[in-house]
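Re: that backbone. Tokens:
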């Protein structure tokens, strides 16, 4: 399939989902009508305009499909609508790992006895008994009032569509501060074993390492942020390194990088890739198979394939296909899931923008810790996610690149040491403590960098709320710049390759060398 056709279909589908997310009209019929009109006009006009009308027809039809897919989910009526504002008691299964927040615990549960697969969000007071003992797969009894989520205004003055945010997680209704009672554990032996091992692993780390180092170690390894505390978490946000303590493709790729490095002495590259993807699947199951975990696993798998094949051209298509598949499964991800947006943009930046940035950083030595690679990856991802982050947070970090340069080389080491601490500590207190001491040093270093940079008076700038249309406009301009820069880079590479077999023989007649086909100089094959 030609590039123009492939990218037209992708952009059309995404545009259709995007438009229907904001406009409550029969968008798919309107767009499809435009496409059919262009198709009819294509038959009537000459060949000079047929190619343009073909692309317009293609993008209209794919946009109509995207709008129709979004429309089908928008019009779904929840089975719990009949219980709205009514106090009920029901049994449910915890569908993902409990989220420990500052003011409470968030449980995403799958109710039993209802003919539906949708979930309900249950918020629980963090001081409720046994709330911290709940795990993915547990069966619980819940009593509370079923309510419909309402939008609210953030501290930055933005209206947050809370209902849309929860719909992206297949949640239509919620129970605020309900009473939760434990019934029994999950009857799935595989998941029960994985969850039990995870909790034992976390308990070992917390027994050896103090807080907040233990919380940071669990965060960079498992995506757990409950022990960081609001002050330290805010420092990580200000310095632009919060991504290391959320479950992202970056964290998973570091884990897989260590595994594939060890296996490089045992298996061929193809087998290492297969084992790496298998490990990603197991890790996603271990952390609860939540939407964020699945998303991170998909992105990390694509990066792993890109590294093993070296086919950047193919991996861009694979990334877009993966994005379309995820949007077909859940179209609310496009507008209402910030994690999906950031993961997709960051991965795209590593694929298409990092090579352009690296060409400007060739004078920087690679070094023992991969200095140039870290710098180019950091700059590329920061550029790609900047417009979206500014819209959501209103916070422009001026120390992000410097903080990432200092922190990222220590993250992989801290992850490895934290992992060894949790494993060895289950068999030997002495070995676990010995390795834990080194892990403590690396984790303390990361925390110190975050706190020092966050205290600087110029560390960040708080921006006011601005219209959303600026975000897509910024990405359109960024896409045009990347396309032109890539074309110029390709042309420059082609010119260098075409002259690589030529040598220049010069006769020093003048201070400056003169390239000519005369007696002054000659160009020889």
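Recovered sequence:
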């Amino acid at each position: 399939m030609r590039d123009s056709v492939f990218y037209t279909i992708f952009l059309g589908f995404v545009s259709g989902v995007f438009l229907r997310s904001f406009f409550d009209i029969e968008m798919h019929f309107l767009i499809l009508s435009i496409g059919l009109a262009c198709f009819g006009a294509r038959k009537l006009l000459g060949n000079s305009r047929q190619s343009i009308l073909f692309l317009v027809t293609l993008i209209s039809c794919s946009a109509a499909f995207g709008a129709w897919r979004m429309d089908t989910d928008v019009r779904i009526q929840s089975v719990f609508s009949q219980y709205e504002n009514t106090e009920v008691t029901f049994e449910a299964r915890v569908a993902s790992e409990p989220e420990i927040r500052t003011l409470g615990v968030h449980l995403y549960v799958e109710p039993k006895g209802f003919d539906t697969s949708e979930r309900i969000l249950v918020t629980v007071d963090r001081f409720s008994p046994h709330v911290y003992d709940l795990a993915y797969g547990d069966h619980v009894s819940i009593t509370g009032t079923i309510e419909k989520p309402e939008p609210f205004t953030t501290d930055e003055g933005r209206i947050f569509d809370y209902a849309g945010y929860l719909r992206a997680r297949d949640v239509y209704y919620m129970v605020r501060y309900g009473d939760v009672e434990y019934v029994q554990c999950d009857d799935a032996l595989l998941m029960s074993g994985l969850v039990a091992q995870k909790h034992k692993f976390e308990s070992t780390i917390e027994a050896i390492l103090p807080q907040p180092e233990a919380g940071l170690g669990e965060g960079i390894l498992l995506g757990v942020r409950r022990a960081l505390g609001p002050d330290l978490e805010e420092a990580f946000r200000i310095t632009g390194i919060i991504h290391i303590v959320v479950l992202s493709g970056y964290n998973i790729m570091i884990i897989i990088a260590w595994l594939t490095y060890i296996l490089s002495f045992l298996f061929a590259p193809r087998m290492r890739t297969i084992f790496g993807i298998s490990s990603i699947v197991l890790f996603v199951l271990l952390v609860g198979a939540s939407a964020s975990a699945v998303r991170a696993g998909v992105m990390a798998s694509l990066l792993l394939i890109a590294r093993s094949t070296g086919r950047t051209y193919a991996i861009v298509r694979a990334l877009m296909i993966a994005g379309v598949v995820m949007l077909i499964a859940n179209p609310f991800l496009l507008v209402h899931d910030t994690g999906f947006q950031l993961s997709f943009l960051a991965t795209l930046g590593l694929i298409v923008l990092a090579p352009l940035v690296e060409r400007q950083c060739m004078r920087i030595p690679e070094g023992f810790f991969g200095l140039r690679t870290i710098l180019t990856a950091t700059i590329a991802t920061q550029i790609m996610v900047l417009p979206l982050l500014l819209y959501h947070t209103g916070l422009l970090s001026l120390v992000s690149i410097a903080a990432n340069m200092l922190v990222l080389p220590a993250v992989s080491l801290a992850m490895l040491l934290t992992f060894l601490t949790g494993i060895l500590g289950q068999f030997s207190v002495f070995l676990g403590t010995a390795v834990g001491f080194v892990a403590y040093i690396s984790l303390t270093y990361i925390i110190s960098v975050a706190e020092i940079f966050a205290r600087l008076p110029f560390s960040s700038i708080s921006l006011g709320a601005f219209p959303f249309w600026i975000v897509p406009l910024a990405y359109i301009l960024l896409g045009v710049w990347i396309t032109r820069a890539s074309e110029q880079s390709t042309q420059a590479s082609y010119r260098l390759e075409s002259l690589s077999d030529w040598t220049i023989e010069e006769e020093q007649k003048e201070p400056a060398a003169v390239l000519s086909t005369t007696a002054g100089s000659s160009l020889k094959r």
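The mean pLDDT is 75. The first strand starts at residue 86 and ends at 94.
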